[in-house]
Amino acid sequence: QVQLVESGGGLVQAGGSLRLSCAASELTFSTYAMGWFCQAPGKEREFVATISWSGHVTYIADSVKGRFTISRDNAKNTVYLRMNSLKPEDTAVYYCAARPASTSYYPNDYDYWGQGTQVTVSS
To answer: Are strands 58-60 and 117-122 parallel, antiparallel or unpaired?
Structure first.
Protein backbone atom coordinates (compact mmCIF):
# COMPACT_ATOMS: atom_id res chain seq x y z
CA GLN A 1 0.00 0.00 0.00
CA VAL A 2 1.34 3.40 -1.03
CA GLN A 3 0.91 6.33 1.34
CA LEU A 4 1.18 9.84 -0.08
CA VAL A 5 1.56 12.99 2.00
CA GLU A 6 1.31 16.45 0.44
CA SER A 7 2.84 19.59 1.90
CA GLY A 8 3.73 23.12 0.88
CA GLY A 9 0.29 24.68 0.54
CA GLY A 10 -0.69 27.96 2.12
CA LEU A 11 -1.93 31.49 1.57
CA VAL A 12 -0.18 33.62 -1.04
CA GLN A 13 -0.91 36.82 -2.93
CA ALA A 14 -1.69 36.81 -6.63
CA GLY A 15 1.51 36.60 -8.64
CA GLY A 16 3.32 34.66 -5.95
CA SER A 17 4.77 31.16 -6.03
CA LEU A 18 4.54 27.92 -4.10
CA ARG A 19 6.19 24.53 -4.35
CA LEU A 20 4.04 21.59 -3.35
CA SER A 21 5.70 18.33 -2.34
CA CYS A 22 4.32 14.81 -2.20
CA ALA A 23 6.29 12.23 -0.24
CA ALA A 24 5.61 8.54 -0.92
CA SER A 25 6.17 5.59 1.38
CA GLU A 26 6.51 2.95 -1.33
CA LEU A 27 9.97 1.49 -1.90
CA THR A 28 9.13 1.00 -5.59
CA PHE A 29 8.03 4.63 -6.00
CA SER A 30 10.19 4.92 -9.10
CA THR A 31 7.88 2.53 -10.99
CA TYR A 32 4.76 4.70 -10.47
CA ALA A 33 3.42 7.46 -12.64
CA MET A 34 2.37 10.43 -10.51
CA GLY A 35 -0.27 13.09 -10.91
CA TRP A 36 -1.50 16.32 -9.38
CA PHE A 37 -5.19 17.25 -9.28
CA CYS A 38 -7.08 20.13 -7.75
CA GLN A 39 -10.59 20.57 -6.42
CA ALA A 40 -12.28 23.86 -5.56
CA PRO A 41 -15.39 24.03 -3.35
CA GLY A 42 -18.48 22.95 -5.27
CA LYS A 43 -16.49 21.85 -8.32
CA GLU A 44 -15.23 18.58 -9.75
CA ARG A 45 -11.68 17.37 -9.34
CA GLU A 46 -9.53 18.64 -12.21
CA PHE A 47 -6.32 17.42 -13.80
CA VAL A 48 -3.27 19.60 -13.23
CA ALA A 49 -0.16 17.64 -14.20
CA THR A 50 1.28 14.14 -14.52
CA ILE A 51 4.77 12.66 -14.81
CA SER A 52 5.99 9.24 -15.93
CA TRP A 53 7.89 6.78 -13.74
CA SER A 54 11.16 7.83 -15.39
CA GLY A 55 10.43 11.55 -15.24
CA HIS A 56 11.01 11.82 -18.98
CA VAL A 57 7.36 12.42 -19.92
CA THR A 58 5.22 15.18 -18.44
CA TYR A 59 1.82 16.67 -19.29
CA ILE A 60 0.45 19.93 -17.96
CA ALA A 61 -3.14 21.16 -18.08
CA ASP A 62 -3.70 23.97 -20.58
CA SER A 63 -5.03 26.21 -17.83
CA VAL A 64 -1.70 26.19 -15.98
CA LYS A 65 0.78 25.52 -18.80
CA GLY A 66 3.66 27.96 -18.64
CA ARG A 67 3.05 28.63 -14.94
CA PHE A 68 3.20 25.18 -13.28
CA THR A 69 5.93 22.54 -13.53
CA ILE A 70 5.90 18.94 -12.33
CA SER A 71 9.08 17.07 -11.40
CA ARG A 72 10.18 14.11 -9.33
CA ASP A 73 13.19 12.93 -7.37
CA ASN A 74 13.05 9.15 -7.16
CA ALA A 75 16.00 9.03 -4.78
CA LYS A 76 13.83 10.97 -2.29
CA ASN A 77 10.51 9.26 -3.19
CA THR A 78 9.07 12.73 -3.81
CA VAL A 79 7.15 14.49 -6.57
CA TYR A 80 6.88 18.28 -6.78
CA LEU A 81 4.55 20.86 -8.27
CA ARG A 82 6.14 24.27 -8.74
CA MET A 83 3.45 26.92 -9.10
CA ASN A 84 4.41 30.35 -10.37
CA SER A 85 2.34 33.44 -11.21
CA LEU A 86 -0.50 32.20 -9.05
CA LYS A 87 -4.01 33.51 -9.68
CA PRO A 88 -7.05 33.64 -7.39
CA GLU A 89 -8.72 31.03 -9.60
CA ASP A 90 -5.93 28.59 -8.66
CA THR A 91 -7.39 28.45 -5.15
CA ALA A 92 -8.23 24.82 -4.40
CA VAL A 93 -7.20 21.73 -2.50
CA TYR A 94 -4.36 20.06 -4.39
CA TYR A 95 -4.07 16.28 -4.34
CA CYS A 96 -1.17 14.02 -5.20
CA ALA A 97 -1.97 10.65 -6.79
CA ALA A 98 -0.06 7.55 -7.92
CA ARG A 99 -0.60 4.63 -10.28
CA PRO A 100 1.65 1.66 -11.20
CA ALA A 101 1.29 2.39 -14.89
CA SER A 102 1.76 5.15 -17.46
CA THR A 103 0.66 8.78 -17.12
CA SER A 104 -3.04 9.63 -17.17
CA TYR A 105 -5.33 12.66 -17.18
CA TYR A 106 -8.14 10.81 -15.44
CA PRO A 107 -8.67 10.66 -11.66
CA ASN A 108 -10.30 7.23 -11.85
CA ASP A 109 -7.08 5.75 -13.25
CA TYR A 110 -5.14 6.47 -10.08
CA ASP A 111 -4.94 3.94 -7.28
CA TYR A 112 -3.50 5.99 -4.42
CA TRP A 113 -4.25 9.49 -3.17
CA GLY A 114 -2.87 11.87 -0.60
CA GLN A 115 -4.97 13.85 1.86
CA GLY A 116 -4.62 17.11 -0.06
CA THR A 117 -3.09 20.46 0.76
CA GLN A 118 -4.92 23.79 0.62
CA VAL A 119 -3.70 26.52 -1.70
CA THR A 120 -5.35 29.92 -1.32
CA VAL A 121 -4.44 32.82 -3.59
CA SER A 122 -5.63 36.25 -2.50
CA SER A 123 -6.37 39.15 -4.84
So the answer is: unpaired
